[in-house]
Structure formats: structure tokens, C-alpha cells
């Protein structure tokens, strides 16, 4: 009865439960409102920080919109500081600020390209004899058209200067270094990426860019084990302008007219003598080509090779051999490697200490044969021991490597950025199979990826 009288009591029926007085009810509403406001603020802040910023300014980097001649002129005082030489101890955890990259749902780094500028010394002389090369323009345009690009410098993880250092032969070393140091975000090269394919110069031809560059990453085309900072630098191919504008006919993997072919024209005399000895021992199985002495200099002669007065088209002749020799020259990195891969000829690489292009991710055992230079006399015997079926697989893989990673400045640039991206977001990195297994070719011609000719439609003009 007591229970019934309490439930029916008018004292509490109009004001809610007896245990919550009116004052406490007001406090509860206040705290719930305050908590809701704070919670909504936190949610909004989190969405702003982590929501993918897909809407970017339309002021993309483009040489088409602003000619190099219209770029602002920057004069370099003689007293300008010079960066330190590349720090050989640099690794991603010591010389790269990964926190600039931050978290984003797409696991993709953002790359900023500095605006075009023309750097000159106090006398008005440019820091480069060539300015912006066609190849570097293609590379920068590729980056600006990619999903890596951002025009917001505050969001950038990686910075790419518009200063062209692809070919060291065209650079004034000191002045180029001063120009790099003047970049607004240089910060001793932290998170900066330089592309160089032709390092060093006479007489010693260093295997890395001689321009002092502080802590900047280097995508280099001729690294040795002494200059390559493993897991930091990226070894890239030397782009071949000769093969890029030549469409080779379809050639299926299998036996070729020649077993071994050598096409390089500036081979050291000791190597040349050893190759000639192998030629005498093995006859028609080995074709030893050289430059043609009876042709005028120029592009036409660069696309010809000769043997005892017989003229061959280059690089087409490379398709006629199962294996093609790639020997070190004045520089470790050789454009011949790209020519050979394009032809589906298995490269025989004789360049001790050479860091092969993209070797961080590519399995070169599947597409090449690496032989120590001292074993050049045994080359023929070594190659004869490889089963025919394996040779065919290597021919196929060589052709695909060229098509996917060597065929254009776009392929080289995007592969470089993807390797760096995989280091920063290792949980989303490409697998060994994705890097090294050719895509499955489907029968439908509308969606099939052709791997037949390994050709490139973009001509080039990189001069060695």
C-alpha cells in the first residue's frame, strides 16, 4: 500500500522523479549542451585535418602557361652560401622529415614544384648552358599532372626544384649549388628531391652529382656502391633519346640470329680486345659492332653501327641477338641498357659496383645477367649454361621492364615517386609481385595491355 500511495502522490507526479530536483535538471541540460558543442567541435576539427583535400588551386605548374623566358630573373651574389656536399650518412629516419607527409586516407605523398626562375651570376651569366631541357620539362609536367602534385607549399611532403640538374655537363657547379640554397624551403635540403642522369665530369667522372646538395635526396643515373645511400637515394635509368623515338617491330621471345651482340662505341681498349678474342673463338655467334667511320657525324650516324664495312641500323639490330653486352663506360650508367631492354635482348651487365636502376624494387635476376668484369673471358660459357626456356622468360621480362619503367621520362618519374611513397607508407606499399610480374594480358583488344613491341611515342633530346 505504501508503494501505491507514493506512485499516486501529486507532489512528485508533476515534477518528474523524486530523485532529480529541478536545479539538478537544469544542470544536466547545461552539461549535455556543453558536451555536445565540444564533441561537434572535435569532429569538425578532425574532419578538417584528415579529410582528403581533393580540391586544389587551378594554378598548376605548367611550362605551357609561362615560358622559361618569362620567368623572373634571380641574380646570385658571389657571397651567397653554398650547401654542404651530400651527406653519405643520410637515411630516411635521419635526413627526411616524415611528419611533413602526415596522414591521409589515400596514403599518397604530396609533391610541390618550385616556380620557374632564371638564375644568373652577378655578371648575368646563367647557371646552366641549356636552361630547362626538354626531358626535365617532361618530368616536371608529369609530376604536375599526377595525383602526387600539390600547389600548396604548406601541404607538401616533398619538394622538387625547377632547376634542371639532369646533365652535369651543362652546369656551373658552384652557382647551381647557390641557387639551390636560395630556395625558400631548402632547409639544408630536407625533403628535397633532385633528378640527375649524367653525373660527374672528366677526368674522373664521379658516380653521383658533384653539385653540393646538403641532405637532398638524389634520383641518380650512375650510382656506385660507394655513393649510393641505400634506402634514401633512388637509382634511376639513363634515359635513351635514340631509342625513345624508334618503334621496333614485334619480335617474340626465342632464339635469335646472334647469341651475343656488343653495340657500344666507346669501350675501353682492354675490354674491346677481350671481346675480339671471344669473337675469334665463337665466330658468327658473336657480333662485335663499332661506330661507322665512313658516315658524317650527327643523329644519322648515331643510329648506325658497323662491322667490317657492313652497316646496321641501331637500335633495330639489338633485336637480332639473345644477349647484349652492357659494359661500363666513362660513366657507370649507360643509355645502352635502356636500348637493350627495349629490344627484348637480355642485357649482360659488366660494371662492377653499379647500382642497377630501381633495384630497390626490381628483381634484375629475372631480366639480366650480371657478370663481374674479371670474368669477361668466361662470358660465353656462362651464358651457354642458361636453359633456353629461362632465356625466353628473361627476354620477355626485359621488354616489360622497359615498357613499365624505362620507356619515358613519365615512367621514370612516376616510378621514382612511387618508391619514395612506399617508404613513407610501407603498410600500403606495392608488393614484390606488383613491381615484378607483368600484368595479365586479356584477350579483349579493347582492354588488353600490349607488351608486343615495347615502344615509346614521345621523342626526346637528352644529349650525353
Automatic annotation (TrEMBL):
GO terms for cellular component: Golgi apparatus. Residues 106-386 form the Exostosin GT47 domain. The chain crosses the membrane at residues 29-51. The keyword DNA-binding does not apply. It comes from the Eukaryota. One of its GO terms (biological process) is heparan sulfate proteoglycan biosynthetic process. InterPro entries: Exostosin, Exostosin_GT47. Residues 261-288 form a coiled coil. Keywords: Coiled coil, Membrane, Transmembrane, Transmembrane helix. GO terms for molecular function: acetylglucosaminyltransferase activity; N-acetylglucosaminyl-proteoglycan 4-beta-glucuronosyltransferase activity. Belongs to the glycosyltransferase 47 family. This is Exostosin GT47 domain-containing protein. It comes from Oncorhynchus tshawytscha. The gene is EXT2.
